[in-house]
Design brief:
Layout: H1 3-11, H2 15-37, H3 40-61, H4 68-86, H5 115-141, H6 152-159
Length: about 160
Amino acid sequence: MDLTVLMRRIQQGDKDAFKTLYSRYSKTVYRIALETTHNKEEAAAVVVAVFREARQLIITRGPYIGDLYGWLDALTAKQVRLLRLYGDDGSRIKKAEPKPGAQEEAPAFIKKPRTGAAIVNALLALCAVALIWVLLGLLGSLNVFDELDLGYSWFNKAVFKLF
């Protein structure tokens, strides 16, 4: 059956047409919801809510003609957000519960680097500072900076003699 005809029949109240729409697209909506919620019960609740809203929208606003997958995906995302905010019954604000055995993670911009990465970053910063210090010393030896002495005289007297 053509999708346009199916939508018009749903708008007219045909329950068999709605069952056909549900049987065609419920697995796709369930897969999207499960990928988002990681919970089979919540995903099943989202599927019911998505098709309840889709039926209501088709009846009140007319047949949806366009990218049906995109529309169902948007409705699924909306219902997942509503489920997380209000819970299954819609009467209370649902507190986000961490998954069993999982620790809450900070957002990516707050995460601390791993120890190895922190050491590498510190060494790179130290090398950058040393390179800048050497470049300033070379510019000072060329008399670009007459009064700039960042420890170069001490370095030349104490350390440079070793080389």
